[in-house]
């Protein structure tokens, strides 16, 4: 059944607060083969002028998944779009960086469904969601756009 574009387009999630944990940053850096010590070593990060280890560039995607929205969530059948996970493919991700994110930061994430469209006569549907990450000082740190592909049929 096609996604109800009129119902879901423009929906904005509730804000979700997530803590950027040092241990998980190191784990993520290791898992992605990141070798830059700015992402794993406090001393190296401080020597480079940072207050703590930096979050690797694509780390926001992990935070997004660790704090799923209720309103507008792709998988949530009650408050979201309600897509069956077995039909989902990862389409695309884009990032715009405004401020560094560090271990110990607390970020607030808000996600908006900015586009829903189809291709191949509805065989493929695309959901574009934009997430903003703001730090405790109210500063915009990162914007992420994620495209989810739904395979129908």
Mean pLDDT: 91
Helix content: 10-25%
Strand order of the largest sheet: 1-3-4-5-2
How many beta-strand runs?
5
Structure annotation, total helices: 4
End-to-end Cα distance, whole Å, is: 9 Å
Beta strand %? 25-35%
**What is the succession of H and E elements?**
HEHHHEEEE
Shape: elongated
Task: Supply database-style keywords.
4 helices; single chain; alpha+beta; 153 residues
Please specify the SSE layout and strand pairing.
Blueprint (H helix, E strand, L loop, with lengths): L4 H4 L7 E4 L2 H10 L10 H6 L12 H7 L21 E10 L8 E14 L4 E12 L4 E12 L2
Antiparallel strand pairs: 1-3, 2-5, 3-4, 4-5
Describe the overall structure:
With 153 residues, the protein is α+β, with helices and mostly antiparallel strands. It has four helices and five strands, in the order H-E-H-H-H-E-E-E-E. The protein has helices at 5-8, 22-31, 42-47, 60-66, and strands at residues 16-19, 88-97, 106-119, 124-135, 140-151. It has a five-stranded antiparallel sheet with strand order 1-3-4-5-2. Strand 4 (124-135) and strand 5 form a beta hairpin. The longest helix has 10 residues, at 22-31. 27% of the residues are buried.
Gist?
The chain has helices at 5-8, 22-31, 42-47, 60-66, and strands at residues 16-19, 88-97, 106-119, 124-135, 140-151.
């Amino acid at each position: 059944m096609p996604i109800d574009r009129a119902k879901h387009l423009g929906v904005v999630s509730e804000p979700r607060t997530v803590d950027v944990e040092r241990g998980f940053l190191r784990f993520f850096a290791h898992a992605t083969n990141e070798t830059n010590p700015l992402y794993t070593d406090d001393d190296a990060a401080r020597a480079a002028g940072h207050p703590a280890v930096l979050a690797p560039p694509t780390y926001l995607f992990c935070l997004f998944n660790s704090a799923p929205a209720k309103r507008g969530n792709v998988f949530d059948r009650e408050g979201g779009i309600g897509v069956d996970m077995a039909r989902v493919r990862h389409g695309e991700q884009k990032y715009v960086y405004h401020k560094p994110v560090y271990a110990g930061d607390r970020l607030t994430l808000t996600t908006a469904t900015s586009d829903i469209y189809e291709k191949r006569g509805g065989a493929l549907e695309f959901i574009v969601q934009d997430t903003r990450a703001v730090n405790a000082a109210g500063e915009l740190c990162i914007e992420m756009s994620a495209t989810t592909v739904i395979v129908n049929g």
